[in-house]
C-alpha cells in the first residue's frame, strides 16, 4: 500500500475531478485520499494490515451489501438494512484524526454537539429525526456538529468514553459534557446547547449605573458590546458570538422588557421591538459601532465584532494578541510595523498612555501597515528585557517612556528601533511629529532595522484564570473522568473488581493481625515465663530470660525491651522475664547442677540477681549467662566461677554501692547487654551444661 501511495503522489493533483475529465478520476482521487488518511491513522493502518480494508472501504462494502434490502424503504434510515441516504449523520461523521486535529482546537471558539450512533439500533432511528432538526439550529447559530459511528470508529469511541448508543455530548474548550436529561426532545436539546456555554459569559445590564460600570472596565484590554432585545434571556446567537470572541470582547445584555432598562434604551436611542448591537472602546459616551435589525443573524454579529474587536490603544497582554496586532512578515518591501509604548501598571504612566492613545486614534487609519499598542513591564518582563537589554523602560533623562518600533520578520526574532527621546506625557504634539517622521522613513526604507532581539516563546497570558481556580478546574476534570470511567464499566466487572479488592484487603488484615499476635507472644515486656517452659522449646530455640525483682521490675523491663526490639523478629530466640523472688530456689538448683560452689548458695539474694540474663536451651541442657557485675568488675579476685557469677552476698560497701547505682540507673545494669547479644549470635560465649533441669518451686 505504501508503494502504491508513493507511486501516485505526483499524480494526486492530476486526478482531481476539477482538473481531470476522466470518469474514473473522481474514484482514483478518493482512493488516494483514503490511502493518505490510512497512513496517517494508526488504527486504520492496523485495520488495513490485518483485514485489507479500512473503515471507509468497509462502510462502502457494507452499503453495497445492504442494497438488497432497498426497494420500498429508500426513504428511511434504519441503520440495520435500508439503503443509507445522504444525511447530516453521514455528512458530519468524524474520525479520530479529525477530532484531535480540528474539532478539539476549534472547540475553544465554538462548542461542538456530537451524536453517537450505531447500526442495528432502533433508538438511533428515532433520535436521528430530532438530530436533523437540531442540526438546522446549530447551523444558524454557527456552532459545530459531528457524528460518531461507535462500531466503525472504536478509537474515537474510546476517546470520548461512549458506552451506549445513541448518545449526545458536547465538546467545549476541550471538555466533554454529556446530555443526561433522560428522554430526548428538540426543546431539551436546545436547552442542553444553551447550558454548555459558561454561566458568566454575558453580563446582565439593567440600570444606567451598571452600564457605566460595565463600559468603564475596558482597562482589562477588552472591547465592550451591549446587546438590546425584548427577551428574558440572551439569544443563543448572542451566546455563540460572545463565546467565539470572548478573548477580545466582553458582552452585556439589556432586556428591554424591564421598565428599569428604559432609561438605558433612551440614552443610546435604541428602537423598541428590534435587536440592537452597540460596540464600545475607551470612549464610553457613544458607541463606536451600532447595528439594529429585527433579527440580527450570527453572521451580522460576527461582522460587526470583527471590525471593532480592538481598543484604540490595545495592550500586548497575551501571545494571541501579539500575533494578531503584530503579525510577522519577512518581506522588507512592505514590512508591518508595531509601535509599542513601554509602561508600568501605575497611575504615574496614565498620562503617557492617554496622550499616546489620542495620537493613535488620530493616525490609526492613515496606514494599515502600522499598529499602535502598549505593554505592561511587570507581567511581560521577559519581553521587555529582551528588547531593552535590561536597561529599563525610561529614557536617560527619566522624563519620557521608551517607544519601540518593531518589525517581526520571524516568529521568534524581531528587528526594532527606538523613537528618539521617547514619549513624554505632556508633549503630545512634539512627540507625535517625531514619531510620524520616524515611521515615514522606516516604511519607505528597504533596509533592515538596527537592533535585533530573540523574543520569549510565549507572552504571559494576563487573562489566565487564577491558580486556585485552575487547580479546582483540573480536579473537577479528574473527578469527571474517574466517574465516567466507573459508570462506563459493566456492573458485573465492577462488582468483581470491588470484591477482589475487598478480599485482598481482608487477607492483608488477617495476615497483619496474625503477625502482630505472633510478635506479641515474643514481646519481652508482656511475657512472664515460668521456669518449666524453658525446656519445652524446640532444640533450635533459646529462651533469653531476664531476672527481675519487685523493686527493679518495671525499669529493667522497659530498658530490656528497647534493647531486644531489634532481635524480636529472629525466630531462634524467645524473650521472657522471671521474678527471681518467686523462683530463687529454682535458680539455686540450676547453679548446683552447674558446679560445686565452695560457698553456701543459700546466701544468694534476689537483689544481687536482678539484671542477670540467662540464654537457656532446654532440650540440649545448657545455658549462657550475662551478669552485669562481671562485666563491670573484670578484675575481681574471686574464683573463676564466683568471678563469672558473683551471686553470693558480700560485705563490700563499694560493691553494694555500685549495685545500688545500677538499680537506680538500669541502663548501667544492661549497658553491655547489647554487646553480649552480639557475641551470643557469634557463638563465642561459654556454655554451661547441666545434668538435668531442676523442678521449679516457688
From TrEMBL:
It is found in: Endoplasmic reticulum membrane. Residues 1-26 are annotated as: Disordered. Residues 15-24 have a biased composition (Basic and acidic residues). GO terms for cellular component: endoplasmic reticulum membrane. CDD domains: DnaJ. Coiled coil: none annotated. SUPFAM superfamilies: Chaperone J-domain, Thioredoxin-like. It comes from the Eukaryota. Residues 1-11 have a biased composition (Polar residues). InterPro entries: DnaJ_C16_autophagy_reg, DnaJ_domain, DnaJ_domain_CS, J_dom_sf, Thioredoxin-like_sf, Thioredoxin_domain. Residues 1-52 form the J domain. Pfam families: DnaJ, Thioredoxin. Gene3D superfamilies: DnaJ domain (1.10.287.110), Glutaredoxin (3.40.30.10). Its main location: endoplasmic reticulum. The chain crosses the membrane at residues 494-516. Plays an important role in regulating the size of autophagosomes during the formation process. PANTHER family: DNAJ HOMOLOG SUBFAMILY C MEMBER 16 (PTHR44303:SF2). This is DnaJ homolog subfamily C member 16. It comes from Ridgeia piscesae.
